Amino acid sequence: MRFAWVRGSEPLPGRTWPLVAAVLVLALAGGALTVAVHPIAAFAVLAAGIVGLVMVQDAFIALLVSIGVLYLLPFGVLPLGFLGGLKPTLLDASLTVLLLVWLLRRLARPEEPPVLTPVAGPLALFLGLAFVSLILGIESTSDEVLRFFIKTVNSLLFYVSVVNVMRDRPQLLTAVRALTALAAAAATIALMLYFLSTDLANRLLSLLRPLGYPSGDVLRFIAYTDTQRAIGTAIDPNVLGGMLLIALPLLLVQLFGEVQTLPRRWLAVGLGLVVLALLLTYSRSSWIGAVAAALFVIATRYRRAVLPLAGLLAALLLLPQGELFVGRFQEGIAFQDLAAQMRLGEYKDALALIERYPWFGVGFGQSPDVSLYVAVASIYLLIAEQMGLIGLAAFLLTMATFAIWMAQQRRTATDAPLKALQLGLNAGVVGALVAGLFDHYFMNLQFPHTVALFWLFVGLAAAASRLGGLEPASAENEGAILIRPSGAAPIV
Q1: Residues forming beta bridges with residue 89, ordered by sequence position
Q2: Is residue 489 part of a domain?
Q3: Whole-model pTM over 0.85
């Protein structure tokens, strides 16, 4: 069975009758659940089962579903509470299915070699050291922390799935198109909820309660003020800021570069929505990461983007919230507000903990010293707390290997459109790493979806680099991309 509406899809070989049988089983199970439990449970299980069947047929579709979950329902869970309280998240299910489908395809096609990248070795070392730190600190590790650890490992392995599933140019371009559209959709949802009345926005978010979302007063405000922060379906404004900042440079390179996976006018609208939603999160770490990502794009290739971006930012600062944006940033830089002052205390305590447990850290549970705690707004200090300086060195080695490899690939790339996309993906990783100096969500067990999002961008950048070094695709295979050569109209 082929799903031809997705470019570059490559389903597993097999007959269609097992799918028909599985759908019949799901229908019977749904009828039983309707009678015995609740109609919503039946529909949820049927929908999840149908999507799951499609994902099992095609690893690339499983990848697209994973990207959709990351941006639209990052905290969603499968409504399976009637099955012994088991509630895997939608992300757990999609990433696991993706990894299993790829592994099964490897078993079915042993002649197809796996994709090996320079990042794989340091990443494997980092994962191994994570297990060492987990074992050393197992006495203070609860069952809940262990579950989150497994989720995070699954998110790290997302990189392996991405680079192996992304086998050709149309697949990569389809994935980038989906990622671009979904980031704009997440920003749109966040803005709609932000500008609605508080009661209506809370009621709408409470509709997601069957999927594990909180209900009641869900909206978030700056501490000790009535200034609302944009949250969307990410619930946490800092998490939403991270989701948007990492996608922002991908919009930039498409809007100002040689390649557009969507029409340019829609890219401009999407960029405006993402920037506005990002500002309304009032997440200062995300702002700094976004600026770093944009400067990376501008300094590397697209200097002509400076004036349009400056104009967009100036227009947004003229909004009624403009003074709040400036004031919020100034307070953070000067450490004047309570949140910034608390971070200074966190950094001090983190350094004290690292000094006591320098090599392998304290693991992923609680600190052995009751006077210290494992929590700090920095991915680097957090890794050092949990995995020690050796674990931090392994992470930095992974990122350094990635950076060196990307620089080498950019010099030898022969496919200009993919080279542009690689730049946007690299800039997203740069923005996330800079934001990680001041926040922890890209490497925190409590946020496995942002960990997965980070490694998704690393994996897509690796795929763009590998495919960009091959011979340029023929015009016949270029239907998934819009390319604007100098002085020419777009080619669809």
Answers
A1: 77
A2: no
A3: yes
